[in-house]
Specification:
mainly alpha, 3-stranded mixed beta sheet, 74% helix, globular
Length: 315
């Protein structure tokens, strides 16, 4: 039995990105730029919402929390990936791998729940506009975000504690650029049936229920619009919800590509590329999606730029 050779490993080896050696420098620069844009872009969104009183509304409060989450979601894996791209020995300690799994689950789950909360906010704004301020009061907004974090922490803790019971033998190579939970279970030589069962039930529920809520919210929104259809109302709803819908499509589309539509025939390179999209590219795109399609954010950005220019001119 393989259980005789089980051991508590001190580190794992990461295969990293499937990039030819002669192109490592180019991709290193590319991902470094993407990461810097992600951090600075999301920080700018948070700053604009903080300093502009016109943006002190539930919608922008949730957007600032989403920007905060995206910034850290990307930071869990990208710095380590950038270091590994310059190293011949792409290893990660056992404790580092556990930490990466834990925080990845937290931020991915929080992103999932926040998108559902934002869809609910748009539903109330469009379907119950007269009661919006009463329903989406500050206490409720804070409570929705707090519950999202609490559920995410609990969700991550369950999977991390179960993973701590898993043992490994000789194979400690992870065919990915980060500690991906399902890949870790594949190289384990202990019984992982309980881990897989929890992923199939609890994790699937955590992932699917918010998505169902998002779909339900938009069904109600469009049903409300179609009761008294008009071009003005249609474009107003599209401008209000378009950015959120695009972010939802990017996030769930790439995750579905990795976890639902992948098959044994799917190459590791394609699976890694899909992971790069939802873990690295999507957090970078979110600030641009919201700012380029949002008049309030543009106005706040122009006001901020004017203040910066004024401060420079007076010094």
């Amino acid at each position: 039995m393989k259980r005789q050779n089980e051991t508590r490993v001190s580190e794992f080896l990461l295969l990293g990105l499937p990039i030819p050696p002669e192109q490592q420098g180019l991709f290193l620069a590319l991902f470094l730029v993407i990461y810097l844009i992600t951090v600075l872009g999301n920080l700018l969104i948070i700053l604009l919402i903080r300093i502009d009183s016109r943006l002190h509304t539930p919608m922008y409060f949730f957007l600032s929390v989403l920007a905060f989450n995206d910034m850290f979601f990307s930071s869990v894996t990208v710095p380590k990936m950038l270091v590994d791209m310059q190293s011949n020995h792409k290893s990660i300690s056992y404790s580092g791998c556990i930490s990466q799994v834990y925080f990845l689950i937290i931020f991915a789950c929080t992103e999932n729940l926040l998108l559902a909360v934002m869809a609910y906010d748009r539903y109330v704004a469009i379907c119950q506009p007269l009661h919006y301020t009463m329903i989406m009061r500050q206490e409720r907004c804070i409570s929705l975000v707090a519950w999202s974090w609490l559920i995410s922490f609990s969700h991550a803790l369950i999977h991390t504690l179960l993973f701590l019971q898993v043992s490994f033998c000789d194979d400690i190579t992870i065919p990915h650029f980060f500690c991906e939970l399902t890949k870790l279970l594949e190289i384990s030589c202990s019984d992982t049936s309980l881990n897989k069962l929890v992923i199939l039930t609890e994790a699937a529920a955590i992932a699917s229920l918010p998505f169902i809520c998002i779909i339900g919210s938009y069904v109600c929104i469009w049903a409300t619009v179609l009761k008294n259809p008009s071009a003005k109302k249609f474009f107003k709803v599209l401008s209000t919800c378009g950015s959120h819908l695009l972010v939802v499509a990017l996030f769930y589309g790439t995750i579905a590509e990795v976890y639902l539509f992948s098959s044994p025939a799917m190459s590791g390179a394609k699976e890694i590329a899909a992971s790069v999209m939802y873990m690295i590219v999507t957090p970078m795109l979110n600030p641009f999606i919201y700012s380029l399609r949002n008049r309030d954010i543009k106005q706040a950005l122009n006001l901020f730029a004017d203040k910066v220019m004024f401060c420079k001119s007076t010094t």
